[in-house]
Design goal:
This protein is of the alpha/beta class and 644 residues long. The chain has 16 helices and 38 strands. The protein has 2 domains: 330 residues, Metallo-dependent phosphatases (Purple Acid Phosphatase, chain A, domain 2), CATH 3.60.21.10; 234 residues, 5'-nucleotidase,  domain 2 (Alpha-Beta Complex), CATH 3.90.780. Helices cover 24% and strands 28% of the residues.
Length: 644
């Protein structure tokens, strides 16, 4: 019997192997990603009140349809930061809020495009949890977020339950290269920066907790595989940075690429582009194939200016589907060299959101005041600037009223504001540039683009100094004995973290190293970039108390500024900073924006301090005698020099 069974197995084994070989298949799958759309559904600039060819999902939609038509199998995902970021987003959240059962315009478009799943970005929380849940209820596709949990109040985040679905297993039928159909389970998992608890503390405190992105990936990816996922697509609303990634890091893509079982990564958050030359020096990156640690990955810029495309070759030779080959790439809507559009807008998008768009345009055209001079932000990173100071003045007026009759009324009042529109990765037209004349609501939104709420904090003079030291990290260290021309601005430093403080006077010594790194860590204890810091003409008293008007992001710890963690808020206003600006303009009616030069960058003898900004600034040089044009770069940018 034993001999007979052995002979039978010997005869059947080649047959079995032959059948297996016949069943082996190769399957091509295209994965498409949009991310950081920020409610730029149309190719329309609400601040300039005119169409644009630089961004807009309407143009990306054309790319999506073309990319799908090229292949037999495809999936489309959105990686969040969808609901906030343009006046259209504010209109449906605040001006004419969604009614029960009404579908958010973003989902009118994404549903029509056939999105397969979506991830929740950090800006989704800006309007509060009720609005977020009401909005995403209109999506005809599932949402995932693996590291956001419900605060159960027991003080132990480890046992908190998921606030959203951590992951989904999408069952899809795909066609292999031989024309045969296969049913696959595609696992999709999403993540968001844990810093949402700081950035939207007002909305989330006591409601949600957030877990570490990497820990959540390590927990759920094996579970997805155990439940039969043939492929795992990670969608982190998180960036990819060099160096170590600590626990609860904001940007964790490098670590996700090390998690076994992850087959593709669709990331975002930083508004950057991957693959691109910017990441050439990152470890374990293959730009030709578009991989991080061997995992295909893509990040499609912002506002729909690119479509992310990952092409996978799958085979099941070993009895299970695996990625045999891959390539990731970006498809732009515009040629940056020629500054010409590469695709037309899909007319379906405009049809779907026509009512909301018309309402937004009409609202943004409402006049609130008049300005005697132009207001622009081309030089706000290197000199005291009217566009920033106007915001500070509005914050001061609002906070002064809020403090009346309180124990803090007699304390010195300062105001912190930063330039938000400073070109760079957002494009060389991304600046405030308001002509003299009528100021409409669209101009207010141009000056303050975020839906932050106004807060005020109580700080010591010493803490005020450290606040400014952190902000001064925007500048490169200038070597007095170095080259005769040196770059002044550190372009990796977000301009929204370059706070300037009105109510004090100071200078910045850029020959000193930055005292803090971007994480708020003290890295140069002996360095002092902030010099001659004065209040009312006298050296600031480190022990004195000050009230500083700011926004909820900064007051709650956003940007990792020392001394700011939400514990010293004394004015917790329900109104947005933009509303404070509107109130100020309505009360003033006629404004003459000007900077009072309360801060300046000290010259460095023998060194020309240079910086790049939009070429639109050339028209405003007559009002800035301390700034000179070096050259127009011909791509929408220009090189300037700061003069003593």
């Amino acid at each position: 019997m034993t001999t007979f069974r052995a002979l039978r197995l010997a005869l059947l084994l080649p047959l079995a192997l032959g059948v297996g070989a016949l069943q082996a298949a190769t399957l091509n799958l295209r994965i498409l990603e949009t991310s950081d759309l920020h409610m730029h559904l149309l190719a329309y600039d609400y601040y300039q009140d005119k169409p644009t060819d630089e961004y807009g999902l309407a143009r990306t939609a054309t790319l999506i349809k073309a990319a799908r038509a090229e292949v037999a199998n495809s999936l489309l995902f959105d990686n969040g930061d969808l609901l906030q970021g343009s006046p259209l987003g504010d209109f449906v959240a605040r001006v004419k809020p969604l009614q029960p059962g009404q579908r958010h315009p973003a989902y009118k478009v994404l549903n029509a495009l056939g999105v397969d799943a979506g991830n929740i970005g950090n800006h989704e929380f800006n309007y509060g949890l009720p609005f977020l849940r009401q909005a995403i209820a209109g999506a005809n596709f599932p949402y995932v977020s693996a590291n956001v949990t419900v605060d159960d109040g027991d003080g132990n985040p480890a046992n908190d339950k998921p606030a959203f679905t951590p992951y989904v297993l999408l069952e899809r039928t795909f066609t292999d290269t031989a024309g045969q159909a296969h049913r696959l389970k595609i696992g999709v998992i999403g993540f968001v920066p844990p810093q949402i608890l700081l950035w939207d503390r007002t909305h989330l405190q006591g409601r949600l907790t957030a877990q570490d992105i990497l820990a959540s990936a390590r927990r759920y990816v094996p579970e997805m595989r155990a439940r039969g996922a043939d492929l795992v697509v990670a969608i982190p609303h998180s960036g990819f940075e060099r160096g170590e990634t600590p626990a609860f890091a904001e940007n964790s893509v490098a670590r996700i690429a090390e998690v076994p079982g992850v087959d593709a990564i669709l990331f975002g958050h930083l508004h950057g582009e991957f693959p691109s030359r910017f990441f050439a020096d990152h470890a374990r990156v293959d730009l030709d194939k578009g991989t991080i640690n061997g995992v295909p990955a893509v990040m499609p810029g912002r506002w729909g200016d690119h479509l992310g495309v990952i092409d996978l070759v799958l085979d099941n030779t070993g009895g299970r589907w695996r990625v045999a080959d891959s390539r990731a790439a970006l498809r732009p809507i515009r040629d940056r060299a020629t500054r010409r559009p590469l695709v037309d807008a899909d007319p379906q998008v405009a049809q779907l959101v026509a009512e909301e768009h018309a309402g937004t345009v009409a609202h943004m055209r409402s006049a609130v005041a008049r300005s005697s001079t132009p207001i622009q932000s081309y030089f706000a990173q290197v000199a005291d600037d009217p566009s920033v100071q106007l915001v500070s003045q509005a914050q001061l007026a609002y906070t002064r009223r809020a403090l009346q009759g309180t124990a803090f009324e007699g304390l010195p009042l300062l105001s912190a504001a930063a330039p938000f529109k400073t070109g760079g990765r957002q494009g060389w037209s991304h600046y405030t540039d308001i002509p003299a004349g009528a100021l409409a609501l669209r101009n207010v939104a141009d000056l303050y683009i975020y839906p932050n709420t106004l807060k005020a904090v109580r700080l010591s003079g010493a803490q005020v100094r450290e606040w400014l030291e952190m902000a001064a990290g925007q500048f490169q260290r200038i070597d007095p004995a170095g080259p005769p021309q040196q770059e002044l601005v550190n372009t990796a430093f977000p301009s929204y973290n370059f706070d300037t403080l009105d109510g004090v006077q100071y200078a910045i010594d850029v020959t000193q190293p930055a005292r803090y790194d971007r994480a708020g860590k003290l890295v140069a204890p002996g360095a002092r970039r902030i010099v001659d810091l004065r209040h009312q003409g006298k050296p600031i008293d480190d022990a004195a108390s000050f009230i500083v008007a700011t926004n909820n992001y900064r007051a709650s710890g956003g940007g990792n500024f020392p001394g700011l963690d939400g514990s010293n808020i004394v004015v917790d206003a329900p109104d947005e900073n933009r509303e404070a600006l509107v109130q100020y303009l309505l009360a003033t009616r006629e404004v003459d924006p000007s900077a009072d030069a309360n801060w300046r960058i000290l010259p460095v003898p023998g060194v020309q301090l240079r910086f790049t900004s939009g070429a639109g600034g050339i028209a405003h040089l007559a009002r800035h005698p301390n700034i000179a044009l070096v050259r127009d770069n011909g791509d929408g940018s220009a090189l300037y020099e700061l003069r003593p």
